[in-house]
Design brief:
Number of domains: 2
Strand order of the largest sheet: 1-2-3-7-6-5-4
Oligomer: single chain
Distance between the termini: 39 Å
Structural class: alpha+beta
Largest sheet: 7 strands, mixed
CATH superfamily of the largest domain: Bira Bifunctional Protein, Domain 2
CATH topology of the largest domain: BirA Bifunctional Protein, domain 2
Number of helices: 6
Number of strands: 12
CATH architecture of the largest domain: 2-Layer Sandwich
């Protein structure tokens, strides 16, 4: 299995305009949780936590994210001051970055599913989890957690995921470098952040997400708590929310779990 080179990632990030401290762990409970521990322990500055595996990886609403050895699992801890109100948009930014990198690896049918999944042939290959971290009453940092099924076989995944998940290894038939993949993702993250800062807007991110998503035009079911919205996803709005046309009219969805409804 290709090895991971933290120093090479640090150099790539710095070259892209993201000066980061890179912490690599062979295994941890969760890279997001580890990033929080580093912050609570006094770390300042931007931080990238990378793990070879996770024992308690999670996604939205604390759902378990299977994280066996061979996957790419990382969390980017950043200053929140420019983005404290825009964490959902940062999640779209990360999803666009991962999707672009996968396409550049030859997975040309990689798409983003609103709001935080990346699919290949309608099977999940990666996911994003954005969080804000507060110190006292002040929002201090944003964490973007990303998990990619990279050099993972079907047998590495729980049996209940075999029909709904895939990996880069499964799709390409060969192992790939986690160092190169992470450098590519960070390159795109830095480019999107630069465009956002220059224009004081997420217009570039939203435009690319609209082009990369497989959600628009699809019949969808959106669930959040006791709320269920059924209809056709018609638009990703400028604030990152999803517009769904239902039998009762247009509903704007800001958060929720989206299921693409299969049509025969």
């Amino acid at each position: 299995m290709p090895s991971f080179d933290p120093d090479a990632v640090r150099r790539c990030a710095e070259k892209a305009g993201l000066p980061l401290h890179v912490a690599y762990l062979k295994s941890t409970d969760s890279t997001n949780v580890e990033a929080k521990r580093c912050l609570e322990g006094g770390h300042r500055g931007d931080l990238l936590v990378v793990a070879g595996s996770q024992t308690a990886g999670r996604g939205r609403r604390d759902r378990q994210w299977s994280s066996p050895p061979g996957g790419l699992y990382f969390s980017l801890l950043m200053d929140a001051s420019p983005f404290s109100c825009d964490v959902p948009l940062l999640g779209l930014l990360a999803a666009c970055s991962v999707t672009r990198s996968l396409r550049e690896m030859g997975l040309h049918d990689a798409t983003a599913k609103w709001p935080n999944d990346i699919l290949v042939r309608e099977k999940k290959i990666a996911g994003v989890l954005g969080e804000v971290v507060s110190i006292g009453r002040r929002v201090d940092r944003v964490i973007l957690g990303v998990g990619v099924n990279q050099n993972v076989t079907l047998g590495d995944l729980p049996s209940d995921l075999h029909d709904i998940a895939t990996s880069i290894l499964i799709e390409t038939g060969h192992e790939t470098s986690p160092t190169e993949l992470l450098c590519s993702i960070l390159h795109h993250v830095a480019a999107y952040l630069g465009a956002t800062r220059r224009t004081s807007s997420f217009a570039t991110v939203i435009g690319d997400f609209r082009r990369m998503t497989s959600t628009l035009g699809r019949k969808v079911i959106v669930r959040e708590g006791d709320s269920v919205v059924k209809g056709t996803a018609t638009e990703v709005l400028d604030d990152g929310s999803l517009s769904v046309l239902t039998t009762d009219g247009v509903v704007r969805v800001t958060v929720g779990d989206v299921a693409h409804v299969r049509t025969e």
